[in-house]
Amino acid sequence: MNNNKEQVVITVLGANKPGILAGITRTIADSNVNVEDVSQKIMQDLFALMMMTDFSAANCSFEEFQNRMQTMGDQLQVKVFIQHEDVFRYQHRL
Amino acid sequence: MLFSLEEVIETISAVGVETFDIRTISCGVNIMSCADSDVHKCAEKVYEKVIKVARDLVPTARILEKKYGIPIVNKRISVTPVSILANAFTEPTAVPIAIALDNAAKELGIDYIAGFGALIQKGFTRGDQILLNSIPDALCSTDRVCSSVNIGSSQSGINMDGVFRMAEIVKEAAERSSATNGLACAKLVVFCNAVEDNPFIAGSFLGPGEAEAILNIGLSGPGVVRAALAGSHNLNFGELSELIKKVSFKITRTGELVGREASRMMGIPFGIIDLSLAPTPAKGDSISDILELMGLERTGCHGTTAALAMLNDAVKKGGMMAATYAGGLSGAFIPVTEDAGMCRAIEDGALNIQKLEAMTCVCSVGLDMVAIPGDTPVDVIAGIIADEAAIGMINHKTTACRLIPVPGMKAGDIVDFGGLLGKGPVMEVGRHSPSVFVRRGGRIPPPVHSMKN
């Protein structure tokens, strides 16, 4: 197990349409961020995607990654949230 | 998957929809090493020390905002009560220290810097006198400096000479900042039982018992509690309390994460999380709205004190488990102009200053951001401060007054302080005079600490 992992949660919310998953994962791959787990649902016509990723081998800074993902989100007209997993761990796990 | 989609969306919507944020990350800086009999030399040392210790505060907060997706609204600094340094000043003024603090805050991009204050619960030192005399000048010649003075405690009683002097200072500060509706008073708090680790403005300072430097966290979160209570009409009190505790746990936990990480990055110890619900003027980010969702037609109606007591207690119980060290003021804040729901309750005639005073018996922190008529006599202001201090003294809790006698305004007028300080109605105060009482001089003796009825 890689103990130097830097786990980052990517959440995408927006109106469902073709190409969202493709666009998002392309940007993730281009940044050399590794997807470890994916959960996706359509919730009341809302496209909701969450990915657990490992950021430790990324080819850019965290901020630059957020900017790249933001740009892709804007193109796809969806909201993209990039957050360190600790914020969810602290809130939802004892 | 480590987390469910629902959990992740809950966290995201707390920020995006329910206005959750870390209200403040406050860095305490001990400035006692800056002592000098020359106030100007002392001011230079204070500036340099604050810059040196808190240099990384704003950059660190910005990194953490991005990393966790949680806004950190204010970055603040508190310092040792300046009156302690003022004891050594040859020249009887502490204003240059306030200007140095203001300059340091601006240089670092800090929102407010606090600690231009004194602890006079039992009496005045020469330094206290110098500091007190400098307050109106200091607040009117700086933008970001906040002042607080502790005039009473459960151990010492209430220094009524201090109360009266502070009433004069409040009045003077208001008149001298009449162009901004008495804004200087929004940066001035009079405390009873002040705490040494409060991260909230304007009453923050680094107590003499604190470490060389410390990081404290203050939370916001009324909007999150409000959202959780939205469908709670059928819950009984036990269930309602459980619901509030759970929400409080989650928002406090986020503060704990930010505090720990900021501490690690800056190499400054993490002090405390203040388990408070701090409202903002933003729609829905209101303590009053929570009280009304609990079943009150309007905040201020009979039952409000009980509802607030329960809310306050549940917030603490939930937050306590989430925080390694809880401290500060820890309770629901009810600053009037900063809470749109409070202002509406006043305008509807449901809430008056007497009921507000009763509410301060069960929550933090006192008559906070209360605009009163500009022609309110000093004696009446002293009476209001004394009453509030008595509540704190007898109940072993912190109470405070942040009163703004708005020059030229009368009860019912609307005053706008801008930004987080908000806008709201000027409240009516009692017409009868406590003049003889508040001018007796001396100190109200501390209460007996047994036979607690």
Structural features:
heterodimer, A: 94 residues, Alpha-Beta Plaits, 3 helices, 4 strands, B: 453 residues, alpha/beta, Anaerobic Ribonucleotide-triphosphate Reductase Large Chain, 13-stranded mixed beta sheet, globular
Give a summary of the structure in a few sentences.
The complex is a heterodimer of chains A (94) and B (453). Chain A is an alpha+beta fold and 94 residues long.
Word description of this protein:
The complex is a heterodimer of chains A (94) and B (453). Chain A is α+β, with helices and mostly antiparallel strands and 94 residues long. Chain A contains 3 helices and 4 strands. In chain A, strand 2 (34-43) and strand 3 form a beta hairpin. In chain A, helix 1 (20-30) runs antiparallel to helix 2. The longest helix of chain A is centred in the C-terminal third of the chain and has 15 residues, at 62-76. By secondary structure, chain B is of the alpha/beta class. Chain B is built from 15 helices and 15 strands. At the A-B interface, strand 1, strand 2, strand 3, helix 2 and strand 4 of A face helix 1, helix 3 and helix 9 of B.
